[in-house]
Amino acid sequence: MDILSDAVKRIHPSASNTASQLARELREQGKDVIALSAGEPDFDTPEHIKQAAIVAMQQGQTKYPPVAGIPALREAIKTRLLRDYQLHYESNEIIVSNGAKQVIANALLASLNPGDEVIIPAPYWVSYPDMVAMCGGTPVTVQGQESDGFKLTAAVLERAITPRTKWLMFNSPSNPTGAVYTQDELQALTAVLHRHPQVWIITDDIYDNLIYDDGIAVTLPQVDAALKSRILLVNGVSKSYAMTGWRVGYGAGPAVLINAMLKLQGQTTSGVCSIAQWAAVAALSGQQAFLNDWRESFRTRRNFVADQLNAAPGLRCLVPQGAFYVYCCCEGLIGKSTPDGQMIRKDKDFTDALLHAEGVAVVHGEAFGLAPYFRVSYAASMAELAEACARIQRFCVSLS
Fold this sequence. Notes:
Aspartate Aminotransferase, domain 1; seven-stranded mixed β-sheet
């Protein structure tokens, strides 16, 4: 008798998690490995945020929290969205979950029926298609082009929509490409969405504080207020505040959807860790000046990594506008062989051979829906990045 459900058979392990775990295991074996596979800032959580957690514990804030999130955090989220985007939400339009990933999973599970389609622009975050499949929906991938900066265009979106389309999954700044949509580009997409009222939108804004070169964060409900009743805005504190392990994400959207998501969360995880929620209050409500220093550090690293990868034979990459990833094309190396005779037939062959030969862990592009590419996270020290890029260049030179 097969114990496994059809739902779990439809999904695959996360490629980025798998690459990071393999890097950890190799390090534990004593191997010299530089891991540029995880989507995690290398900065420590700021001290005032950690102190808020300590105070919360000392004050006895250690009981079961409300499923939707503690009132103070929902107020902080409302204030943040009003301050930064001029978007007003009521408390019953806010949910706090165990990371932005749970917000998205809750929304899909609460809304998808068999046959419902979800449009996912590629390259995409590795979990999007699997979450859709797990929840019984059909992921519909639409390919972005490097010539368009990997961005979804209005024409491509129009062609992808069918009567069965339930959701558009949207992400800016993008993981894995770092692409950032302008207001004009977003307006072109919203014009299409107005013609298809059955389509709801998940806008994953988790990297919105990490935009460079005088770029400005713009979110879909801010661009077109008339679509706000069909948009779930997803965000969290993981990337902006180096709080990946605290597991606090949030969603803002129509009450009918939020209530359904609360029903699911109440029967699965219930509320998010109370101590982590008080830390998130401090993150959203406290001083934000350090973000400027972090952005400048990331910008410097981005420029260095892009320059170094573009200098490697057979590689090319765009300079990303946001997040902390470079999405690099290795098309020029397909068909070549390693010194020990291993043929590079696809991007995963490249990333596997790079890890074996030089101890650099990156994630192959096929996992993000567009090959032959690979993703490099530059959320690492300059020393690590310099060494990793030197190893990548050496590896590329070794191919024949």
